[in-house]
Amino acid sequence: MEIYHGSNVCIQMPEVRTDKYAKDFGGGFYCTVMRQQAERWAGRYRTSVLNVYDFHLADGLKVLTFKEMSEEWLDFVVDCRAWKVHDYDIVEGPMADDQIYNYVADYISGTITREQFWALARFKYPTHQIAFCTARSLDCLTFREAIEL
After folding, report:
1. Could you report the per-residue pLDDT of 116-144, keeping only the tens digit for each?
2. In Å, how far are 4, 16, 38, 72, 122 from 68, measured between CA atoms?
3. pTM of the predicted model as reported, rounded to 2 decimal places
4. In terms of Cα–Cα distance, which of 137, 131, 125, 142 is closest to 40?
5. 47-88 pLDDT, tens digit each
6. Torsional sign, CA 128, 134, 139, 144
7. Do the beta carbons of residue 1 and residue 55 sit within 8 Å?
8. What is the Cα 91 distance to its own chain's centre?
9. Is 90 exposed, middle or buried (0-12, 13-18, 19+ CB in 10 A)?
10. Taking Cα atoms as reference points, which of 127, 3, 13, 132 lies closest to residue 55?
11. Is 96 helix (H, G, I), strand (E, B) or coil?
């Protein structure tokens, strides 16, 4: 499967990163199967680079997949945004984009209820992300090319 990572640099050797900002699925190297979405990620930078990888799932990895936003997805995102650590090698599912992130933050702070979150959380376009959360999971990736946009 071909997957993409939008950045400002070529990344031939991905790394698991734990940034100062909490992410939907915790620390990791984030990719997507949606080229247009990765191009939007790259568009945040002055120099935009689309990194392309081949992804082959290896045996023995612990994988969690969310097919769509669900109660379980919301609870998992809330936990990860609160810096709770999980033991999955790879987590895949919808992305809480900037707007959805604000709704998650409002839900966490108690400004809105869970029901209000779901009423607001309607995407105008689909999103997707795969978080490679362990060094072992990165072995599933083979760098193909970097395209300057």
Report:
1. 888 887 665 678 999 999 999 999 999 99
2. 20, 24, 19, 10, 11
3. 0.86
4. 125
5. 999 999 999 999 999 999 999 889 999 999 999 989 999 999
6. positive
7. yes
8. 8
9. buried
10. 3
11. coil
